[in-house]
Amino acid sequence: MSLDLLDKTTRKQSLSKCDKTSNTNNLSLRKFVALAFVAILFIILRIEFSDGPINVDENIAPSVARSMVERGDFNGNWRLAENIMPYFKRDMHNFYSYNLFAIPFLKPTENETIAALRSANIALQLGALAFIWFAMKNGGIAFWRRFYTSTAIAVLPTMAFDAHLARAESLLYFLAAAVIFVASVNRSVLLRWSLAAFIIGVGTASKLTFAATAIIFLPEGLKLLRNEPTKTIRLLAISALAMLAGFAATSPYTFIEPNVFFDGLGRLMRQYSTQHLPHSNPGTGMLDWASHLVLFAVGISGAACIAIRTPLRSSPNWMIGLSIMASVIYIYFATKPVFFERNISLALLASIIVAFSLPRWRSTNLTLTASLIVMTYWSINIALLSSSRGSQITEWEINKFGMAIDRTWPLTGAADLLSTCGDRIIGVSDYGDVTSQRIKNEIGIEPMATRNGAFSKLPTSTLNTYLETSIDYYQCYGGSK
Predict the structure, then answer these.
(1) How far apart, in whole angstroms, are the C-alpha atoms of residue 222 and residue 405?
(2) What is the maximum span of the chain, computed from C-alpha positions, in angstroms?
(3) What φ, ψ does residue 429 adopt, rounded to 5°?
(4) What pLDDT digit, counting tens, does each position of 340-368 carry?
(5) Are 131 and 242 in contact (CB under 8 A)?
(6) Using an 8 Å Cβ cutoff, are 25 and 63 in contact?
(7) Measured in whole angstroms, how far is the alpha carbon of residue 115 from the centre of its chain?
(8) pLDDT band (50, 70, 90) for residue 481
(9) Tell me, what DSSP letter sits at residue 407?
(10) Which residue from 437, 409, 55 is spatially nearest to 282, judged by alpha carbons?
(11) Is residue 474 helix, strand or coil?
(12) What parts of the sequence cross the membrane (predicted)?
């Protein structure tokens, strides 16, 4: 009798172990499938099928990188680049570290180089996602919350769009994510601060506002300053040197030709302080642009950036720092009369990380899920428009007018052209800004047809101006010259 009981107990224990093993295997399989889903979604939304540049900015890195190779030096002055477009041929060191990064990707033609850099963007952004994943893991964030956040990052429209452009943004995502990861690891303060500072220096060599990522360490720094002020000051000095080293390593001629650096910096400051058509509405104030930022965040990223109900007191220091950094970036660019959404790209990424990774009310989770759907919709649109750029417009024009329509450039000459272009139809881009409205007033007649762009509700954004802006079609009313 006792032997039978022992045998039954043994069988139950064996079955229990099998069930546990099976459950563990099923959970591991589900996690693997979840990670594969995020990776595939991430890559699909970033593959670029079109040939050639989306925007003239993509001429910069191939031209400057090639000029450095041909001369055999690392002088990143744009003026020295023979193949750079005339508009860019000026004394500037902008995007220095990215232009150095572009050197291994140089191909025989500019279009091939752009394609190679776009492929590199996918790798850089995947690396950024990996850094953020492990930073969240170090912060004690559960697997499925990390999966939720990673999915949001995969479909973040601004990040997806940046992968389609041979510009510095993808490198900056990678470097910012590396800073976040370094902030999250359990190592000595000296090691973390100095390594992060060096990375920040590299990023700042491409874009000065990247220095804002140092704010990630602000909460930790304030606590340390309160408890150990002397040690903190010493750490800050070492970090400043490390940041300078990172900047110097990837922007060497800034120290040899400081006048070129300051000329370029002055030009950028003037550009952002006045206007940069069609990315600005002259005369707008801070509140107007603050509302524009909100419109952009809601229209593109759903409710993610305003649905942040964050229990910050129980969050890791770096998570609190991310929240502060995002706020500083939003406020700073709200004071500028020029709006490029890429200027707030790191703030949007930080907002997504904080909004999606921390536990919250069920109602807020529903809001974030809705924003996830919105972001996915826009990212799919961006991927389609980037890869079929112009073909959809041409197809629409052929269906509407029986032929493809020429568009006028520069816009300021539209009224004169329409009075002299004979029996033709001319397309005039409408960027939704005050300059476009002024040109409409100068033309003085109603368009015969209008094709609304996918991002016409986001005037001055690069999604609107680069991908698909609205177009007004006019019948010429004057004879040809």
Answers:
(1) 60
(2) 113
(3) -65, 140
(4) 888 889 998 998 898 888 766 665 677 77
(5) no
(6) no
(7) 18
(8) very low
(9) E
(10) 437
(11) strand
(12) 32-49, 115-135, 172-189, 195-221, 233-256, 289-308, 315-333, 339-358
Q: Pick left, alpha or beta for residue 224 (phi over 0 → left; psi -120 to 50 → alpha; otherwise beta).
A: alpha
Residue count (the chain)? 481
| Strand 406-407 with 425-430, pairing | parallel
- Give the span between the Cα atoms of 223 and 232, in whole angstroms: 10
What average pLDDT does range 37-57 have in this prediction? Answer: 89
Helix and strand numbers, DSSP H then E, in the chain: 20, 4
| Nearest by Cα to 444 from 408, 477, 481, 480 | 477
For 405-460, write each residue's pLDDT tens digit.
888 766 777 888 888 887 889 889 888 887 888 888 888 888 999 999 888 877 77
pLDDT digits (tens, 9 = 90+) for 363-413: 567 777 888 888 899 899 899 888 776 778 888 899 999 998 888 766 777
| pLDDT greater at residue 143 or residue 338 | 143
Look up residue 427 and give its DSSP letter: E
Q: Is 92 left (phi over 0), alpha (psi -120 to 50) or beta?
A: beta
Share the mean pLDDT of the chain. 86
The whole-angstrom separation of Cα 470 and Cα 150 is 33
Q: Is 476 exposed, middle or buried (0-12, 13-18, 19+ CB in 10 A)?
A: middle
Residues 388 and 397: their CA atoms lie apart, in Å, by 15
Q: How far apart are CA 233 and CA 280, in angstroms?
A: 41
Give the integer Cα–Cα distance in Å for 362 and 364: 5
pLDDT tier at 42, thresholds 50, 70, 90: very high
Q: Is the dihedral of CA 21, 25, 30, 31 positive or negative?
A: positive
C-alpha of 429 from chain center: 25
pLDDT tens digits, 1-27 = 555 655 556 665 655 555 556 666 777
At 471, list the tokens: 């177009």
Please report how the helices 317-334 and 169-184 are oriented relative to each other, as an axis angle in degrees rounded to 10.
Answer: 150
**Torsion over CA: 378, 384, 388, 391 (sign):** negative
Kindly report, residue by residue over 127-149, the tens digit of the pLDDT.
999 999 999 999 999 998 899 99
- In contact, 51 and 107? CB cutoff 8 Å: no
Q: Higher model confidence: residue 270 or residue 84?
A: 84
Residue 387 carries which DSSP code?
A: H
Q: DSSP letter string over 21-89?
A: HHHHHHHHHHHHHHHHHHHHHHHHTT-----S-SSGGGGHHHHHHHHHHHHTS----GGG-TTS-GGG-
